[in-house]
Automatic annotation (TrEMBL):
CDD domains to which the protein is assigned, alphabetical: SpoU-like_rRNA-MTase (cd18095)
GO biological process assignments: methylation; RNA processing
Keywords annotated in UniProt: Methyltransferase, Transferase
Organism of origin: Lentilactobacillus parabuchneri
tRNA/rRNA methyltransferase SpoU type domain boundaries: 53-191
Methyltransferase in keyword set: yes
Single GO molecular function: RNA binding
Pfam families, A to Z: SpoU_methylase
Protein known as: RNA methyltransferase
SUPFAM superfamilies: alpha/beta knot
Length: 195
């Protein structure tokens, strides 16, 4: 059958060699598209509300995709990709988001600026860390308004960001593991937070 495209769309048949060259996977689906990318929002909205996830230097595309899908499943309003996080258009990020990027607002920007905006709007900001100042996530009551900052896979949330949150949290662990994968921790926290 014919492809569902309008008359202005150019369609080309390419060789398997070209398909292999332009694909980032071993077994591509066989259909490729070249599109203009949408500029993701960089300006902080004037009226902030709802539940948000802020990504501080999250580098692994698979983790980002899992976190975006989890935020989508939990009903969050938006996600902010902070400095150092993998690019929204990285092919592995796009593939691992599995379409959830079309269900929510995605922004890029400075996490500290966003935190200040949330706090000015009366929305509590939470970070994650393992130290004596952090409290167990069990103490947080579910809410419809919050901003949760999750940090780099190896180093956690930037200390400068942690100093400015309203509260920092940890997830108690009963076994011998020293830490959780950031995407797993995100899922645990988001589903505890959401009302």
């Amino acid at each position: 059958g014919a492809l569902p495209v309008d008359d202005t769309t150019q369609v080309f048949i390419i060789t398997p060699e070209i398909a292999k060259h332009i694909s980032s996977t071993e077994t591509p689906q066989g259909v490729f598209a070249v599109l203009d990318t949408q500029d993701y929002h960089e300006k902080i909205p004037d009226e902030l509300q709802g539940a948000w996830l802020l990504l501080d230097n999250i580098q692994d595309p698979g983790n980002i995709g899992t976190m975006v899908r989890t935020a989508d499943a939990a009903g969050l309003d938006g996600i902010v990709f902070g400095k150092g996080s993998a690019d929204i258009y990285n092919p592995k990020v796009v593939r691992s988001m599995q379409g959830s990027q079309f269900h929510m607002k995605l922004f890029t920007g400075d996490i500290l600026d966003w935190m200040a905006a949330f706090q000015n709007a009366g929305i509590k900001t939470y970070g994650t860390e393992l130290n004596d100042q952090a409290v167990s996530y069990d103490t947080v009551k579910p809410t419809s308004q919050f901003a949760l900052v999750m940090g780099n896979e190896g180093n956690g949330v930037d200390p400068e960001i942690l100093e400015k949150t309203d509260q920092n949290l940890y997830i108690p662990m009963k076994g011998e593991a020293e830490s959780l994968n950031v995407a797993v921790a995100t899922g645990i926290l988001l589903f505890k937070f959401v009302k």
